[in-house]
Amino acid sequence: MPDILNVLKASGQSEPFSEEKLEKSLVRAGANDILAKWITDKIKQRIKDRTKTSEIHDRALSLLKKEEGPLAARYRLKQAIMEMGPTGHPFEKLIAWILRAEGYEAETNLIIKGKCVTHEVDVVAKKSGRQIMIEAKYHNEPGIKSDVKVAMYVHSRFEDIRSVDKWDEAWLVTNTKLTSDAKEYSSCAGLTAIAWNYPREKSLQYLIETSHLHPLTSLTSLDHWIKQSLLNDGLVLAREVTQEKLSELKVKPSKEEEILKEVNSLLNG
């Protein structure tokens, strides 16, 4: 084994394997320090140089599920959001749920007339008399970043609609990452930018974890067809997966019990 293990990120970039980073991600999901270190040591013993980070994540998830099953749903949050596609509509609904938890009124997919053209706005939020236009940039594959052109596009749409009516803020929310230019432009233009891990104290990951609004795709007990059926019915949250909904889908009683047990563990763990 080489002195320094490098891993391959989804973007194709290489970086040194960080035991600390892996341990922190496991602790964030609810694992105690001893379990997090044990899983990290197990993975370090088995990986090779330039192993993909996705493979490391899958191995960690497998070990976590075996040792502390209820924590697996929390650990796979980023992957779960990417499974909400292929369209961005469930992601827009998730954003609306998060905003409501933060005290906003929120609606999705509104048609707003601007000075020059008519716009379909992904999410409209209101709080304390302020009206906010939100553009949701959803990606169902890792390694994709929203660049400065996306930030400029959102800002130009905002300028068009606020020339007709009172709009106070524009936000760009994405489930992946932003380029440095996108962050810089957003800051300069007064555009609120929220990405998977940016800004640190109000990132998408932070907002979901603190609000406990985990998407239903986090549930490891859900078969693909059940996930798709629930999403097609307009559901997006794990807490919306009820016995009534599963019965409507004619899920077998034993499977239904397994799913509801995981939902309860996720919501109350």
What this model shows, in words?
There is one protein chain. With 269 residues, the protein is of the alpha/beta class. The chain has helices at residues 19-28, 33-46, 53-67, 72-75, 77-82, 89-101, 148-162, 180-189, 204-211, 224-232, 243-248, 253-268, and strands spanning 6-8, 14-16, 51-52, 105-113, 118-127, 130-137, 145-146, 169-174, 177-178, 192-194. It has a five-stranded mixed beta sheet, sandwiched between helices. The chain is globular and about 60 Å long. It is built from twelve helices and ten strands. The model has no long low-confidence stretch (mean pLDDT 94). It has three domains: 6-75; 89-211, Trna Endonuclease, Chain: A, domain 1, CATH 3.40.1350.10; 216-268.
